[in-house]
Amino acid sequence: ILNVEQSPQSLHVQEGDSTNFTCGFPSSNFYALHWYRWETAKSPEALFVMTLNGDEKKKGRISATLNTKEGYSYLYIKGSQPEDSATYLCAFINTDKLIFGTGTRLQVFP
Amino acid sequence: ETGVTQSPTHLIKTRGQQVTLRCSSQSGHNTVSWYQQALGQGPQFIFQYYREEENGRGNFPPRFSGLQFPNYSSELNVNALELDDSALYLCASSFDREEKLFFGSGTQLSVL
Fold first, then answer.
1. Which residues of A touch B58 (CB under 8 A)?
2. What is the dihedral of CA A43, A8, A4, A28, to 10 degrees?
3. pLDDT of B40-93, one tens digit each?
4. How far, in Å, CA of A65 to CA of B19, rounded?
5. Is B29 a residue whose pLDDT tops 70?
6. Given an 8 Å threshold on Cβ–Cβ distance, is B98 in contact with A93?
7. Of the candidates B112, B109, B54, B58, which has an alpha carbon nearest to the alpha carbon of residue B87?
8. Per-residue model confidence as pLDDT tens digits over A17-46
9. Alpha-carbon gap, residue A42 to B46, rounded angstroms
């Protein structure tokens, strides 16, 4: 059974703090790793699509790294803002399946 | 550019009934996938269609079935509904199976 593990499950930080989350996935039959942000009452929105070992992606204050050999990805948020409050999901794609983790719920307090 | 739209937004059914959920893909997308989101879990992959053919399936029983039409819109059918089928059902489309997903706002299904 393929499993995608995200940690921590939830995180509460102060505005201005930097934070990071982990996504662990199987290291075999890797195709791609996605990160999504899911705000309450909205649809999940893609942040990054990562395909190559060593990939680093950046979008504003958010960045992500990928290690396919050891099966993990990190998502970093620099200087968290209240609008970053959301659930962050990673999804592992192999030959015929797309598997989401359970997400990290981030709450940023002003 | 139109987004992904799902209908209906909410639905209440009783155990044993059948349900059809609909999804209209974003323009130009040939891949659609369906997910079940239960409380406290990440979206669970049900299946994916690429150019009208199923090309991936999660751990869901055969009573979960789907279709993708020539215009790339899609249906999810669930037969013999069970109480545990109560969940948010999300549809997502993409240009290809590895590309980022564009999600609809979901259909909230309640089975009583």
1. 97, 99
2. 130
3. 888 999 999 988 999 889 999 999 999 999 888 999 999 999 999 999 999 999
4. 41
5. yes
6. yes
7. B109
8. 999 999 999 988 888 999 999 998 899 999
9. 21
CA angle A102, A107, A110 (to 5 degrees): 170
Q: Which amino acid is at B60?
A: F
Query: Which residues is A51 bridged to in the sheet?
Result: none
Inform me whether the C-beta atom of residue A51 falls under 8 Å from chain B C-beta atoms.
yes
More confident residue, B96 or A34: A34
* Residues B56, A36: C-beta atoms closer than 8 Å: no
Q: CB B4 to CB A99 under 8 A?
A: no
Chain B CB contacts of A44 under 8 Å are: 43, 90, 92, 101, 103
Q: Is A66 exposed, middle or buried (0-12, 13-18, 19+ CB in 10 A)?
A: buried
| CA-wise closest residue to B97 among B44, B46, B50, B58 | B50
A88, A34 contact by CB (below 8 A): no
Dihedral angle of Cα B23, B29, B31, B36, to the nearest 10 degrees: -40
Who's near B67: CB < 8 A, 6+ residues apart?
B49, B74, B75, B77
